[in-house]
# Entry
Amino acid sequence: MPSSSLAPTPVLARPPSPTRRAVDSDRRRTSASAILRSVLAHGPVARSTIARLTGLSPASVTDHCNRLTALGLIQGAATLRRSNGVGRPHVPVDLDDSRFVVGGVHVAVPYTTVALLDLRGRVVAERRLDHEEGEGERDADVLSNAAAGLRSLLAAAPDRVPLGVGLATGGWVDRDSGTIVEHPLLGWRDVRAREVIHALTGLPVHVDGHARALVNAERLFGRTAGDSRSVLHLFVGNVVDAAFATHDEVHHGPRSQSGAIAHLPLAGGTERCDCGRTGCLQAELSERTLCRRAREAGVIRTADPMHILAAAADGDPVAVRLLLHRARMVGRAAGLLLDVLNPDSVVVTEMGAVHREDCLAALREEVGPDRAAAVVPTSFPDSVLAVAGGSVALDVLYRDPLSASSVRSRTVSPGPI
# Structure
């Protein structure tokens, strides 16, 4: 028999199936996310500690840390550490928060906030863009002005590289399609915000409701950071809505319609709603209602709720009474949601509770002594709208850090602004 016949028959390895590739990709994404969030929460932190915190193997941690370092998301810390003070020193890793930013856009009723946030969710730059007087400014104008505002902020920070843009607003926002489905107070319907902002900036754009965005911000950068238990966020501005998260997942529901609480009935409410009923949550608690009542009482002459806060700080008893009444009604709403969802904690974004201890106390008193300690104000009292917008993009980054590879060298396009 010829010697060549003794050679083993070569076996061609089968390429991995699409399902296997998808599983591997999900595993890499999940592992990279766990590592980057551990660095955010604990950095500067040793790789061995990351392995213990995440349950990943030391080899996997090292591999992913090398990838994240190559992307510019983390870096070696300046200070060497020794295990128990002995042995060879190791280099801990920390976030590199000096290089990348995300753009944040928050569309409120009277104005839009544009901002740049670093990887720790800190506001690097911020600007407020007032809407035209009256209701119903065209969505195209608002979004075009927002994109121009972002371009201006980035031009003033040439050393920063933008990774993407997050847009948040009230009303019904469909995250998957990037559409503001309905914002009654703005008069907007089916506004394809993601497409518009992307066309004007050239950057990846992510869109979500502001209450959901702020839940994610609290989970990443706020008081509940690292807490996998359940949290409810109640947003009370001109728009009143809510978001609920548990085990690090925010509930969106079909077409992201969860959190629409504007027309929940509020016991003791007296305000007539556009729907024809009396005492709907948003009609009763809206800043529009608060400002109208303050004008009728002679406290202010404007539509700016911050002027009511200023009057209360100057000792105006009517302003104080209006703020305390609203805080109690917000507490009643929080109690209702606590009864339904029973979260471990409730974060409230409401002007009085954020800036005045007496309002926070009144809100908690209405919730009741057994649950009062679970209610806390937002972790971002001076930048809540900027953080809401930017956190939409930062949540995506922290869930899939490896996606930064596709935009790390991208700059803002000279779009038709």
